[in-house]
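Order emerges. One example.
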Amino acid sequence: VGHVGDRPYEQGEESDDDSRSRKSFGSFREISAENIRKITKKQYNIVRNKQTIRKSYSQMNFTKLNKQIDNIKIKTTKPLKKLPKEKLNKYNLKIKTKRQRLDKISYINQNSIDLLTKDSSLPSLRP
């Protein structure tokens, strides 16, 4: 039980101070333990999502792509042994440039993820 002026007021009533402070909070009228728990859970999920994004870029995708590159079958009608050296070199070069392109992509993605995590107000996710 508090006091408004000289008159004590019951718990159902609000003092003037009460209503004023509540208005300034707007939609965050009650910051209960439950709400705080929800907010922190949200932040935790954001952090977790960023980590999984980072993992998927750096590990999963690129190992998969590299495997695909290694498994590229050179389409020829003749068996490989009978192919002249020049042709073989050409194919190897193609595979090499593809791999370089992928490395470049992975580098760019890694950088953009670093930027995401650096400017965030959440704790940094650097390993």
Remarks:
- The chain has three helices and two strands.
- Residues 19-26 have pLDDT under 50 and may be disordered.
- The beta strands are 2-4, 7-9.
